[in-house]
Amino acid sequence: NAGVMQNPRHLVRRRGQEARLRCSPMKGHSHVYWYRQLPEEGLKFMVYLQKENIIDESGMPKERFSAEFPKEGPSILRIQQVVRGDSAAYFCASSPRPGGKTGELFFGEGSRLTVL
Amino acid sequence: AQKVTQAQTEISVVEKEDVTLDCVYETRDTTYYLFWYKQPPSGELVFLIRRNSFDEQNEISGRYSWNFQKSTSSFNFTITASQVVDSAVYFCALSEAERTSGSRLTFGEGTQLTVNP
């Protein structure tokens, strides 16, 4: 009965490199959300995906950031040409349904990105 | 637009004291959900409670209790007889249930609770 699995838990990148964060939702969940937590701040919504579709990316920075949730495999949050300001904890959450009626989300343990 | 305000940035108490964490929210929706999460020093998010906007009954779970008051748009969280293990950042969050785009949560900035022995 695995929960939401995120990897890597910790990632260090140099400025200009690419970061890829992976999220495997709970079994049977087809809705995935990514949130970012900057140091000393609360979590901010980034993107909501269903299998093969981006539903809401209104919280994603316009450049360098992209997300996907393919038919097979985990959801990927990709950050190209990382900068120091990208250093944060990135949390993935999943739900078994759109969640509009229940607000039910299950969070992973987060991936902590450090940009040197 | 929805907003969650946790006015207390940091609270420090001595073990066994009671402590209340405040949460005030703003939303135009009539149906919504409120949450509290705990983030211990290890960093993961621990779900504590979900409450829908139609249920104003207060809830108690062990040493934890929640006071939801729709009239003042508040959803406060009280820890009775605090323990050192309660030291963490606590987040209040809001989800608008009528959104078409799923369970998007708006989080407050968090309250850092330190319980000293």
Q: Please write the string of helix (H) and strand (E) elements of chain A.
A: EEEEEEEEEEE
Give the biggest beta sheet of chain B.
Answer: 6 strands, mixed
Give the helix/strand class of chain B. Answer: mainly beta
> What is the terminal-to-terminal distance of chain B?
41 Å
- Give the proportion of residues in helices of chain A: under 10%
Mean pLDDT of chain A: 90
Largest sheet of chain A: 7 strands, mixed
Describe the 3D structure.
The complex is a heterodimer of chains A (116) and B (117). Chain A contains no helices and 11 strands. With 116 residues, chain A is mainly β. In chain A, the strands form 2 sheets. In chain A, strands 2, 4, 5, 6, 9, 10 and 11 form a 7-stranded mixed sheet that branches. In chain A, strands 1-3-8-7 form a 4-stranded antiparallel sheet, with no helix packed on it. In chain A, strand 4 and strand 5 form a beta hairpin. Chain B is mainly beta. Helices cover 0% and strands 53% of the residues of chain B. Chain B contains no helices and 12 strands. In chain B, the strands form 3 sheets. In chain B, strands 2, 5, 6, 10, 11 and 12 form a 6-stranded mixed sheet that branches. Chain B has a 4-stranded antiparallel sheet with strand order 3-9-8-7, with no helix packed on it. In chain B, a hairpin with an 8-residue loop joins strand 10 and strand 11. Chain B is globular. The model of chain B has no long low-confidence stretch (mean pLDDT 90). The interface between A and B is medium-sized, with 29 and 27 residues.
